[in-house]
Amino acid sequence: MPEGTAAGEAGGVGEYSDPDVVVVGGGVAGLFCAYHLRRGGASVTVLERGALGGPQSCSYGNTGFVGTHGAAPLAEPGMRSLRALGMLSVDAPFYVKLRADRELLRWLGHFGRACSATAAAAGFCALVGMKKRSLEILLELCESPSIAATFESPGIVLTFKTAQGFADASRVVPRTVANGVPLRVLGAGELDELEPKTRFDIHGALYSPEGAYLHVPEFVVEFGRVLREMGVEICEHTDVTGFEVSARKVERLHTNRGDFRPRDVVVAAGAWSTECARLAGVGLTLQPIKGYSVTMDMPPSGPSRPVLLSEGRMAMVPLGDRLRIGGRLELTGMSRAISERRVRGMLRTVSEYLPELEETQTRETWSGLRPCTPDGVPLIGRTGLRNMLIAVGYGHIGMGLAPAGGELISHILAGQQPTTDPAPLRPDRFGSSIL
Q: What is the pLDDT of residues 206-215, one digit of tens each?
C-alpha cells in the first residue's frame, strides 16, 4: 500500500508493496478475478480509476442479470448488413455510427464474419457454459448474509411484441433446453398468473425459472467489503499511467499514486481496457458499446420479476421501490453522453409493450460503456506479454459471465485444469495482440 496510507484510501504518491497480482479494474470483472486469485492464496491489489461501484463503472447502472438465459452472442445470423437492419439509424435498438476509425472498421469486419449460424452456435455454447458456472459461483458467494440481500432469483419473462419474433423464439426453445437452459413457452393466462398487476400488449412470452439478478451498485460495494476482509487491497481513484516492459514482461506498473512491481498483471478494466493494454504495447479487438438505464419510482402496476422486451432489446428489473429500465446498444465511441432522443425511444418502447404502465418520477438516467468483442465472446487469457493476462469483452452480460471469467484467470495463473474451456476465449483469435 502507499506509504502512510490505509489500503483503498486516497493518499499521497509513494512506492507500493509488491503483490503477486495487480488487477486493473474494480468493476465486476476485476473483482471476481481478485476473489478467485485471493482464494487461491495470491496477494492481490485491485486498481480502480474511480470509486468502487461508482457511476463511471458499467457495474453501476445496469440491470444486473445473471443466470443461464441471455447467452446468445451479439453477432447473430442475419446481422451482417448494418444498413439492411437499420442499424445506421439513430433510432435503431442497435445503433452504429460509422466514422473514419481503423479499429472500428476492423471490429465491424470481424463482426460481419461472426454473423453466421456456425459462429453463433459456437458462441452460444461458450457463453451458456460460462453462465452456468457463474451462477454456481454466485449461489455459493451469496450464502453470505450481507451479499445475499443483493441477489434475487424470481425467474425471468421474455416478451415478444411481434408474431414473427415469438415464432422465431419458440422454434429454438427445444434446442435451448437441450443445451441446459430451462425455458418454456407460456400458455394462455400464465403470464397473468406470474404478473397479475402488469398488463402487456404482446404476441407471446417465454419463461425461465433460473432468471436471477443482482442489485447494483449495492452488490459491487458489498463485494468490495468482503474482498477487503479477505485481504485484497483495493485502491480507488487510481489511474494506470504506464508500464515498464522488458523482454516481453511487465517489470513495473506506474499509476498516479505510485508504482507496483507485481509478478503478474490482469487487465479487467472494461471499456478502458483497450487504452490500458495499449500502454503496454498490447492491442485488443474491442469496442465500447454504450447502454442506457432509467431508474424510476416503482409504478403501481410494475412487474415483480425481470422482464425482457425482446425485439426492443430492452429489459426491466424491480429494485424494491424502484424500477430500472435498461437497454439500447450504441456503437459511438468512448463518449458517455446521454442522448435524450435515445432515452425517449426507450420509454416509448416500454409503453408499446406495457401500455398501462403508470408514469412515475425518474430518479436517475445513466449511460455506461460495455466492452464488446466482435463475436460477443470474452477475451480471457494470456497476452503476448509473459505476465499480462486479460479478462475483458463481457459486453452486456458481464454480471453473468464475470464469476466464471475470474475463476478461469486464477486457474491459468495457478497452472490448474480450468473448469471453463479457455479455447473459445483465446485473446489472440482476432490476430496478434502485440502492437
A: 999 989 999 9
